[in-house]
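TA notes, week 10

Several of you asked for a full example with nothing omitted. So below is the full record: structure tokens for the whole chain, then the designed sequence directly under it. When grading your own attempts, check the secondary structure regions first.
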């Protein structure tokens, strides 16, 4: 479960029509390595649970200023196998800040069984420390936990929206570059506790989506710029730097509630 707990980088976002993705991936594969958190499984299913107040405190700030935002969220990772779904008993809790293309993320692992207690304002520091033991940096995990608490302590937050998608990741160690390809992006209204059954959060368990993306979302994540061969590929894509899964899903949910 080793994973960096503090990540700073520059992120650029693009949208690509599905028919253009195979050629794009072929070109990228010639220059970058496929990144697999679990060896032999290049596609991971991700469910991001965005946390907000009943008045959409964080979403409104993001929608009013597309360049600057703070997001509180949890992430669930799973794999679809022939024998069924493989997931873990922990999720990742994250605080992510964005200022233009500069982003910083603070994260810590947490047992899904105490997710409700975390949002209820209970002190789960001991569980965070135990969950982080395999990450080799318990101290940093606890610092990140306190950062999350500093944003949520005086606000009643709860799951607001869930965004699900399939992700492929490519890496270039020479450029300290990650390139993610997200397809089948769907937006849902979040249940009160998505982790109540401790299983994977999958689209077929979330009911009717409140929206979706027909395009594939591509993001570059780097601290050292981008290699020259990549720029022509990206220029052929549609730049959508202001696009945000959080803002888009929140806007859909707000519009849905207004219609009722």
């Amino acid at each position: 479960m080793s994973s960096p707990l503090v990540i700073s980088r520059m992120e650029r976002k693009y949208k690509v029509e599905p028919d253009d993705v195979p050629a794009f991936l072929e070109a990228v594969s010639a220059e970058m390595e496929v990144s697999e958190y679990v060896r032999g499984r290049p596609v991971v299913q991700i469910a991001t649970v965005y946390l907000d107040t009943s008045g959409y405190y964080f979403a409104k700030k993001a929608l009013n200023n597309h360049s600057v935002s703070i997001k509180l969220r949890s992430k669930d990772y799973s794999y679809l196998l022939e024998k069924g779904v493989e997931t873990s008993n922990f999720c990742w809790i994250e605080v992510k800040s964005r200022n233009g293309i500069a982003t910083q993320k603070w994260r810590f692992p947490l047992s899904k069984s105490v997710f409700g207690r975390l949002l209820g304002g209970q002190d789960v520091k001991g569980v965070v420390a135990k969950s982080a033991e395999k990450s080799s940096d318990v101290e940093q995990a606890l610092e990140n936990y306190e950062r999350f608490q500093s944003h949520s302590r005086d606000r009643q937050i709860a799951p607001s929206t869930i965004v699900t998608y399939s992700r492929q990741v490519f890496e270039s160690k020479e450029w300290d570059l990650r390139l993610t390809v997200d397809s089948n992006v769907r937006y849902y209204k979040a249940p009160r506790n998505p982790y109540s059954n401790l299983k994977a959060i999958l689209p077929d368990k979330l009911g009717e989506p409140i929206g979706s993306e027909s395009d594939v979302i591509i993001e570059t994540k780097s601290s050292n710029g981008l290699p020259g061969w990549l720029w022509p590929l990206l220029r052929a894509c549609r730049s959508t730097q202001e696009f945000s899964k959080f803002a888009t899903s929140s806007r859909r949910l707000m519009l849905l509630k207004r219609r009722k």
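The chain has one domain: 6-259. Use that as a sanity check on your answer.
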